[in-house]
């Protein structure tokens, strides 16, 4: 897959109107109506493919509370100085002008599944025939004792991109030699399994580039192991010896609480102190999913693996980080892949277009140092009541430099491809 182009990515992974200030949004007469909640890798892709492949036969409304979308994927490269903030921020304009999608900027507060309406925070109502729910994740603030949404302004999670990403970048850039960053990693399941460890790599890259040889990153992890652990730790020893320390629960004895003002993390066996903290709490499906009654006790949404249809409502589809996707990780690539399956089934429901057997794919790239990128991925299909892996791959230790550089170039091509796939 080296050197993916936008066209290759699309092959591999398978009338504009402003929001009306009325109690109910008026829709085109006679057309079936689809509402998509969430404008990220899942929602934006689903909206575009429903509109594009129905050739205007379906009326599509996309709801997101932001005017612009900043990708969480590749935000670590902004932390590491490899990307600008502008390069990971995207507009919905083309979805509206070229695909006839109505973009509603605001927060969906509730769903009446019996009446098939979405109610917005401003009290307006949007009817649907099919609903696609792709709200990403929400953070479980009290999963880390002593943490809160207010404290995230000083100790950012940056697991939702935007202002949090800027706070994290500023904190990392302010570190001086001899100081250390404390990272509290999240428990499973969470968005982007390799993400915390790529982030630590990017922090270390910044310290190294500034000559901060005695700056450190301490990762306190509630998990006994993590994604791509062997190749990450090999890379850390090669590029940043002594700069990144990872401690699992068998070493720290359990994370008992944090004090953001003091800059400390209390564990079962020790107290760690840092000049800056990156706290990533446990996660659940975006709040609208629970408000709509789509989640189970896990906090995420069960789906039918053949279609991404909600297990509790045949008129609703759930994609991306909010769903329970079996063997598939919570990633942008996964969400984009699931969106195409959901879009196909929505079109089949509403206009009778052909529905093909579902196939899914995912790849996650992680940059350790300039031109040293590692990856993991798989192909998937419905099986045994879940989305099941059919074949997979993962970077190995002691790989040649040329292969790692090709991985990075591939990831850059993928980013260009997926953002074009999402936003047109």
Blueprint of the fold:
Layout: H1 6-12, E1 33-37, H2 43-53, E2 59-64, E3 68-70, H3 75-79, E4 89-91, H4 93-99, E5 102-105, E6 108-112, E7 117-120, E8 125-127, E9 130-133, E10 137-140, H5 163-173, E11 180-184, H6 195-209, E12 216-220, H7 229-239, E13 244-247, H8 249-252, E14 255-259, E15 264-267, E16 271-273, E17 276-279, E18 282-285, H9 287-291, E19 301-304, E20 309-310, E21 316-318, E22 323-324, H10 332-351, E23 360-369, E24 372-383, E25 386-394, H11 401-423
Parallel strand pairs: 1-2, 1-9, 2-5, 9-21, 11-12, 11-17, 12-13, 19-22
Antiparallel strand pairs: 3-4, 6-7, 7-8, 10-18, 14-15, 15-16, 19-20, 23-24, 24-25
Helix pairs in contact: 1-11, 2-10
Mean pLDDT over the residues: 94
Q: Which structural class should the secondary elements be placed in? A: alpha/beta
Largest β sheet strand count, sense and barrel closure: 5 strands, parallel
Mind telling me the C-alpha Rg?
21 Å
Poorly predicted regions are 11-26
How many angstroms separate the termini? 22 Å
SS summary, helix count = 11
Order of adjacent strands in the largest pleated sheet: 5-2-1-9-21
Q: What fraction of residues sit in β-strands?
A: 25-35%
What is the overall silhouette? globular
- How helical, in percent, are the residues? 25-40%
Count the E strands.
Answer: 25
List keywords for this structure.
424 residues; single chain; alpha/beta; globular
Can you characterise this structure?
- The protein is an alpha/beta fold.
- It has helices at 6-12, 43-53, 75-79, 93-99, 163-173, 195-209, 229-239, 249-252, 287-291, 332-351, 401-423; strands at residues 33-37, 59-64, 68-70, 89-91, 102-105, 108-112, 117-120, 125-127, 130-133, 137-140, 180-184, 216-220, 244-247, 255-259, 264-267, 271-273, 276-279, 282-285, 301-304, 309-310, 316-318, 323-324, 360-369, 372-383, 386-394.
- The strands form eight sheets. A five-stranded parallel sheet has the order 5-2-1-9-21, covered by helices on one side. A four-stranded parallel sheet has the order 13-12-11-17.
- β24 and β25 form a beta hairpin.
- α1 crosses α11 (401-423) and α2 runs parallel beside α10.
- It is globular and about 65 Å long.
- The two termini are 22 Å apart.
């Amino acid at each position: 897959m080296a050197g993916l182009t936008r066209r290759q990515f699309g092959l591999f992974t398978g009338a504009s109107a402003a929001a009306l200030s009325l109690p109910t949004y008026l829709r085109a007469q006679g057309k079936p109506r689809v509402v998509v909640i969430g404008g990220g890798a899942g929602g934006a892709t689903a909206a575009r493919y429903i509109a594009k492949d129905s050739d205007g036969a379906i009326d599509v409304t996309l709801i997101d509370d932001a005017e612009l979308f900043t990708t969480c994927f590749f935000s670590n490269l902004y932390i590491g100085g490899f990307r600008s903030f502008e390069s990971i921020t995207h507009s919905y304009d083309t979805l509206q002008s070229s695909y006839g999608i109505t973009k509603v900027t605001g927060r969906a507060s509730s769903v009446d599944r019996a009446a098939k309406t979405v109610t917005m925070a401003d009290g307006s109502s949007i009817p649907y025939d099919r609903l696609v729910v792709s709200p990403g994740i929400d953070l479980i603030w009290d999963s880390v004792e002593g943490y809160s949404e207010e404290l995230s302004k000083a100790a950012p999670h940056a697991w939702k991109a935007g202002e949090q990403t800027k706070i994290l970048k500023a904190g990392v850039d302010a570190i001086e030699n001899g100081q250390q960053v404390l990272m509290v990693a999240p428990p499973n399941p969470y968005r982007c399994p390799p993400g915390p460890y790529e982030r630590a790599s990017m922090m270390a890259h910044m310290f190294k580039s500034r000559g901060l040889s005695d700056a450190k990153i301490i990762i306190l992890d509630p998990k006994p192991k993590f994604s791509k652990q062997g190749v990450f730790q090999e890379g850390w020893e090669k590029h940043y010896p002594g700069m990144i320390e990872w401690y699992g629960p068998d070493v720290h004895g359990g994370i008992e609480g944090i004090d953001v003002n003091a800059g400390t993390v209390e564990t079962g066996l020790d107290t760690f102190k840092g000049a800056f903290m990156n706290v990533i709490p446990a996660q659940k499906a975006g709040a609208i999913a629970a408000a709509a009654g789509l989640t189970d006790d896990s906090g995420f949404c069960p789906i039918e693996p053949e279609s991404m249809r909600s297990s509790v409502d045949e008129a609703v589809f759930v994609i991306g980080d909010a769903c329970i996707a079996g063997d598939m990780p919570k990633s942008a690539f996964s969400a984009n892949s699931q969106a195409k399956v959901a879009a196909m089934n929505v079109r089949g429901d509403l206009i009778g277009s052909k529905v093909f057997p579902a196939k899914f794919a995912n790849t996650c790239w992680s940059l350790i140092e300039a031109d040293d990128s590692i990856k993991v991925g798989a192909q998937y299909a419905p099986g045994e009541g879940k989305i099941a892996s059919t074949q997979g791959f993962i970077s190995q230790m002691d790989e040649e430099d040329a292969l790692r550089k090709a991985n990075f170039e591939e990831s850059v091509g993928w980013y260009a491809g997926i953002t074009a796939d999402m936003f047109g």
